[in-house]
Design goal:
about 525 residues; alpha/beta; five-stranded parallel β-sheet; binds xanthosine-5'-monophosphate
């Protein structure tokens, strides 16, 4: 398949560049700027995109463009630092500007029909700038701050832009990237859900032959789509297992089973293990300890199942591309551990499986598109994320069967009302991406109820009550790394609060969480 290689010079936007290229139906992969030649050329790219980065080209140890890139004779597009690195390597001049330019800027295209002629508003984020173009280049656009906001060498097909076409703040920026990959690199746009499915099916068949394959399905998007793809490839050789931990949301188990049976015609083995999980959690209140117990228990339950099923050789994992690039990126991943993230369905380290990872090169939006094309129901494909340890991390204090049931009932009311008011599901995501809604109407990325181990006094029907409080958490976010609390309509909040207190035994007070992330996290534990 035709493809593009994106070289990462340490930009926070590198993955966004890759997503925009994929949105143009072109396959691409991300590499650290210093990745070995064999690795990069194994992809047989038809062009290179160089990302931005935090350094200055003159700094010691600053990333540079490896020589073999130029020797391939393929087109190159340098973005921000990528443009400066290109200039520096080809004999132009880069200098530090008096002032860092950050935020929106206007550019003026200097030629008709060039890469940048559709653009006027752009997003800048740079300290250095180009003061002399390398030989063979001409200026394609100028901004108030820079005579060379974009440059090109038409003969060699080398281009550079000082701004960031990949971010939403640059209207039509995606067209620039599309133009580069389709017109300049001559790539055919063949990366579609149908072709992704076709290619994966072939790869899975080749990998597993006629062996049996085990999959742990959690109800999350990734594990469901991964299992569905494998089922498409090998049918009944797949054994999909769903573990009911007793820590799931209302009706979750039935929904997942019905999605598999009805929509895919695949069998799903349900393992009822709630007693096991809840008794292991008895008396435990420390958040990290609760997570550890659930993760460990899951592995043991799953292990026992695998044994019963005659220990299949292969295991499906729903690993997606951001997990892969994040763990190999330079200088990143040094973030402090805030919480242990247990992915239910995570690989038990001491188990002898070969992994089948059909989503390893896909972004989340591609996983969803593939899920839809495979016929999974919208409710599953557009589900909000749900943490591996389940309701454990939303049931603060000790998780007893009674408190888990209380939380589940309150949470179901919240989701029902949000969904009825149109705040959840596919439409919400689409609208959020195009950014056409005012903040007040903004849709919700994730919403849930948290049960607090706090009792307060209330009055109901002339009777004094002394019961627990529940908090509503609803956030809007693009990437779940930062988030803001959703400005939900007050009437909607009033209705949810009223229903929870009236319908759920043991809760007499509801509060709304108005903290962003940071400083808070999305989950409470
Ligand atoms: P935090 O609370 O860290 O959550 O702001 C960010 C996102 O990750 C989800 N989350 C988890 N997902 N296992 C998971 O698979 C976990 O242990 C876990 N903890 C948090 C959370 O729901 C939010 O979407």
């Amino acid at each position: 398949m035709d493809s593009i290689a994106i070289l990462d010079f340490g930009s926070q936007y590198a993955q966004i560049i890759a997503r925009r290229v994929r949105e143009a139906q072109v396959y691409c992969e991300l590499f650290p700027w210093d990745a070995p030649i064999e690795k990069i050329l194994a992809l047989q790219p038809k062009g290179f995109i160089l990302s931005g980065g935090p350094k200055s080209v003159y700094e010691e140890g600053a990333p540079h463009i490896q020589d073999f890139i130029f020797k391939t004779g393929l087109p190159i597009l340098g973005i921000c630092y990528g443009m400066q690195a290109l200039t520096h390597a080809l004999g132009g001049q880069v200098d530090s500007s008096a002032q860092r330019e950050y935020g929106p800027a206007e550019i003026e295209a200097l030629l008709p029909d060039s890469l940048v002629s559709n653009l006027s508003r752009v997003w800048m984020s740079h300290g250095d700038r180009i003061t002399k173009l390398p030989d063979g280049f001409i200026a394609l656009a100028a901004s108030g701050n820079s005579p060379f906001a974009a440059m090109g060498d038409m003969k060699r097909k080398y281009f550079g832009v000082q701004f960031h076409p990949e971010v939403h703040h640059t209207p039509n920026g995606e067209k620039l990237l599309k133009h580069f990959v389709l017109e300049i690199c001559g790539v055919r746009p063949t990366w579609t859900p149908a072709s992704i499915i076709e290619e994966s099916v072939e790869r899975i068949r080749k990998q597993v032959g006629d062996e049996r394959v085990l999959a742990a399905v959690s109800g999350g998007v990734d594990s469901s789509v991964a299992a569905a793809l494998v089922h498409k490839a090998i049918g009944d050789q797949l054994v999909a297992v769903f573990v009911d931990t007793g820590l799931l949301r209302k009706n979750e188990g039935e929904q997942v089973a019905s999605a598999f049976r009805r929509h895919l015609g695949a069998e799903l083995l349900s393992v009822e293990a709630s007693d096991d999980f809840l008794s292991a959690l008895k008396g435990v209140t420390e958040p990290e300890e609760k997570r550890r117990i659930v993760g460990e228990k899951f592995i043991r339950v799953f292990e026992a199942q695998a044994k019963q099923l005659g220990q299949p050789r292969f295991l499906v994992q729903g690993t997606i591309y951001p997990d892969v690039v994040e763990s190999s990126a330079p200088d990143r991943n040094k973030a402090e551990k805030i919480k242990t993230h247990h992915n239910v369905g995570g690989l038990p380290e001491d188990m002898q499986f070969e992994l089948v990872e059909p989503l390893r090169y896909l972004f989340k939006d591609e996983v969803r598109a593939v899920g839809e094309a495979l016929g999974l129901p919208e409710a599953l494909v557009w589900r909000q994320p749900f943490p591996g340890p389940g309701l454990t991390v939303r049931c603060l204090g000790e998780v007893t069967p009674e408190r888990a049931a209380r939380l589940r009932a309150a949470d179901a009311i919240l989701l029902e009302e949000l969904s009825r008011a149109g705040f959840l599901g596919k439409r919400s995501t689409v609208i959020r991406q195009t950014g056409s809604l005012s903040p007040v109407q903004q849709m919700v990325s994730q919403a849930f109820v948290v049960l607090l181990p706090v009792r307060s006094v209330g009055v109901m029907g002339d009777q004094r009550t002394y019961q627990e409080a529940a908090a509503i958490r609803a956030v809007t976010t693009e990437d779940f790394m930062t988030a803001d609390w959703a400005r939900l309509p007050q009437d909607l909040l009033a209705k949810v609060s009223n229903r929870i207190v009236n319908e759920v035994d043991g809760i007499n007070r509801v509060v709304y969480d108005i903290t962003s992330k940071p400083p808070a996290t999305i989950e409470w534990e």
